[in-house]
Amino acid sequence: MKIVILNGSLRKNGSTAYILRNFEKILLAKGAEIIYYDLIEQDIALCNGCCSCYRTGHCFINDDAEKISEQLKEADGVIIGTSTIASNVSGVLKLMIDRGHFVIEQLLHKKYAVCVSTYENYGGNDSLKVLKNLVTLSGSYLSGAFTFKLPFNSNCAENKRLNELSEKYAVKIFDDISKKRIYPLQRIRQNLVIKIGLKSFVSNKGEKYEAVQKRWEKLGLN
Questions:
Q1: Whole-number pLDDT of residue 155
Q2: 85 in a structural domain
Q3: Is the residue at 160 inside a domain?
Q4: Is 204 within a domain?
Q5: Which of 119, 148, 150, 147 minimizes the C-alpha distance to 132?
Q6: pTM score of the predicted model
Q7: Average pLDDT per run of 10 along the chain, which is 222 residues long?
Q8: Rounded-to-integer distance, Cα 102 and Cα 40, Å
């Protein structure tokens, strides 16, 4: 079992990172292989909107966004965390979202995901909604999600409820992957998104979306 953890916070040792490292510790103890990324340390360039990746299957910018996408493609699950900035995900996480081949290419098809956001004042639910939409529209089953209000520079180790939530959802994603649990309502929604929102769009693009069509064929989505 391989799970990728993405820390979208701008701080490697902040509250979001504490939660994600808790996930890592619990899942490692259960025998999972964990690949952990502090996105702030990765070389991720801005997407320029050329859409060439939909034709070729890869971005012409060969940086860490491509490396992380390949790891996600091979993983069984993903855990994404972000601090909340202006009621949204962090800028560095948005870079990864823009470059990550997520929705159109169904990068997370039949994988499992947990989403976490932290906030100090307002907007935690807004940033969490962005993450939940990202993973579900990219084909993943959502094993769980939570947002947590924390003062800046909190001592997270002393927050019992926070640690309980970390353990709860770490165990949940591990069990979901192990049992290959199916969430029927989520799958129905995803099928509708593909059939109504994406299929004709991709088909009408023809050779411009050749790599997407090959990817969909491999996943059995055509």
A1: 87
A2: yes
A3: yes
A4: no
A5: 147
A6: 0.96
A7: 97 95 97 98 96 95 96 98 97 97 96 97 96 97 96 88 95 98 94 91 94 94 82
A8: 19
Measuring CA to CA, how many Å separate 48 from each of 52, 61, 89, 99, 164?
A: 10, 10, 20, 9, 41
What is the tally of structural domains in the chain? Answer: 1
The angle at the Cα of 168, spanning 164 to 174, to the nearest 5 degrees, equals 145
Q: What is the pLDDT of residue 154?
A: 86
Look up the domain containing 158 and give its range.
2-50+59-182
- Count H helices and E strands in the chain, helices first: 9, 5
What is residue 33's predicted lDDT score, i.e. its pLDDT?
A: 98
9: buried, middle or exposed (CB in 10 Å: 19+, 13-18, 0-12)? buried
What would the two tokens of residue 221 be?
Answer: 């989505």
Asked, for residue 191, whether it belongs to a domain, the answer is no
Whole-number pLDDT of residue 222: 75
Token pair listed for 64 = 């860490």
31-56: buried (b, 16+ CB within 10 Å) or exposed (e) per residue?
A: ebebbbbbbbebebeebeeeeebbbe
CATH of the domain at 167: 3.40.50.360
Q: 144 near 138, Cβ under 8 Å? A: no
d(CA 185, CA 81): 24
End-to-end CA distance of the chain: 27
